[in-house]
Automatic annotation (TrEMBL):
Keywords: Cell projection, Cytoplasm, Cytoskeleton. It is found in: Cytoplasm, Cytoskeleton, Cilium axoneme. Its main location: cytoplasm. Cilium- and flagellum-specific protein that plays a role in axonemal structure organization and motility. May play a role in outer and inner dynein arm assembly. Pfam families: CFAP300. It comes from Habropoda laboriosa. GO terms for cellular component: axoneme. It comes from the Eukaryota. Belongs to the CFAP300 family. The keyword Chaperone does not apply. This is Cilia- and flagella-associated protein 300.
Length: 263
């Protein structure tokens, strides 16, 4: 019987993400009320890692005292190091297999009712779902299970990491100015996704994604979720990205709300 590795983690400096830190990307994030509402952190480990270690790694990561001292979480409108060591860690694997933006071609086809031939997103009568204002067909596709557009993407496709990023951007924050054109959302989705995942070429020349993505809910000793806080809200999301090539762990935490200030 194999003994699971005893992982030790070392905090790394913030990476300079070319796509995320691009001026145009930052302007859109600000417009959509998302800028400052997500935080990305990096850690390394030296121990052996195989795919089947992913659940064990995620659990010990959030129960690690070094991680507790470094992990940023949201407190009111600030990102702070609360020093919380997880008591329970709920882990869900997230598929991450999309290699190009053709995944969103269904949205760009006017026959599917999301956009007009001009690329402008089709409007619809206002309604509210999960406290989000649904006033166009794109947000209807995301949240309105009763509309025909909702079925454009299967349950498995909706679980893809790139779809999670796209939905986060479209739904936005509390102070969100929505786009009329679909392309703006796709542009920023691509920038963030490309920055966060690793694509590698196999011996046969085929491309694949080596990044392992896990959605996580970490809770303290009172059973209170803190990564993310209030996970029942669709826009509160915590992901753990494991790079088995570089032996790095990246945390991506988004908390819905107004602009979050730095520590």
């Amino acid at each position: 019987m194999e003994i699971e590795p005893r992982y030790t983690f070392v905090p790394l400096v913030q990476k300079n993400y070319i796509g995320i830190n691009d001026k145009r990307t930052q302007e859109f994030l600000s417009k959509w009320g998302i800028k400052g509402n997500f935080v990305i952190q990096h850690f390394s480990f030296n121990e052996t890692f195989q795919q089947y270690h992913k659940y064990h790694l995620a659990e010990v990561f959030f129960k690690d005292s070094i991680i507790a001292k470094e992990l940023l979480t949201k407190q009111r409108n600030h990102w702070v190091k609360q020093g919380i060591t997880a008591t329970t860690v709920e882990i869900k694997p997230i598929p991450c297999s999309v290699l190009n933006m053709s995944f969103f071609n269904k949205l760009k086809n006017p026959k599917n009712g999301i956009v007009h031939g001009s690329g402008i997103i089709g409007k619809r009568y206002d309604m509210e779902i999960e406290n989000f204002l649904i006033s166009d067909n794109l947000r209807g596709m995301l949240l309105d299970e009763e509309c025909s557009e909702y079925n454009l993407y299967s349950k498995d496709e909706r679980e893809e990491f790139i779809f999670n990023i796209f939905q986060m951007l479209v739904l936005g924050g509390m102070l969100c100015q929505y786009e009329d054109l679909l392309d703006s959302y796709l542009e920023v989705t691509k920038a963030i996704y490309k920055d966060l995942i690793r694509v590698q070429k196999g011996e046969d020349g085929d491309l694949s994604i080596s990044t392992i993505v896990l959605q996580v809910v970490a809770k303290d000793n009172r059973g209170q979720a803190y990564f993310p806080y209030d996970p029942s809200h669709k826009q509160n999301m915590g992901f753990l990205l494991v790079d088995s090539v570089t032996h790095e762990v990246t945390t991506f935490l988004h908390q819905f709300g107004v602009y979050c200030l730095s520590q």
